[in-house]
Specification:
About 0% of the residues lie in helices and about 50% in strands. The protein starts with a strand and ends with a strand. With about 100 residues, the protein is an all-beta fold. A hairpin with a 7-residue loop joins strand 7 and strand 8. The chain is elongated and about 40 Å long.
């Protein structure tokens, strides 16, 4: 068991909505980057769902689900639940159970 962190980057030509948390907390929410961390003292991970669109008003969107588990090193899952925009995803583990997408 250890820390859990998740950072999601996307091109600055796109926008994301407010994340729907499944666990943890949002540490920062910038125009093209969101960072989640597990809550201090909690035995759960961090992550949730994020919708990405071309514009705030756009009906087409891609929805990314990502979660980093508190149990074990480099343990989590990530997937497109919807990908109307045809976005590509690249994921890697760094440090102590931090996922960067």
């Amino acid at each position: 068991m250890g820390n859990a962190a998740l950072t999601i980057h996307h091109p600055s030509s796109l926008v994301h909505g407010d994340p729907v948390l499944e666990g943890g907390k949002v540490v920062y929410n910038k125009p093209n980057e969101i960072r989640f961390e597990k809550s201090s003292g909690a035995a759960t991970g961090c992550g949730g769902r994020v919708q990405i669109r071309k514009t705030v008003q756009d009906d087409e969107y891609s929805e990314l689900y990502a979660y980093v588990s508190y149990n074990g090193a480099d343990n989590g899952e990530w997937r497109w639940d919807n990908n109307d925009l045809g976005l590509k995803m690249h994921a890697r583990w760094v440090g102590n159970s931090e996922l960067i997408i």
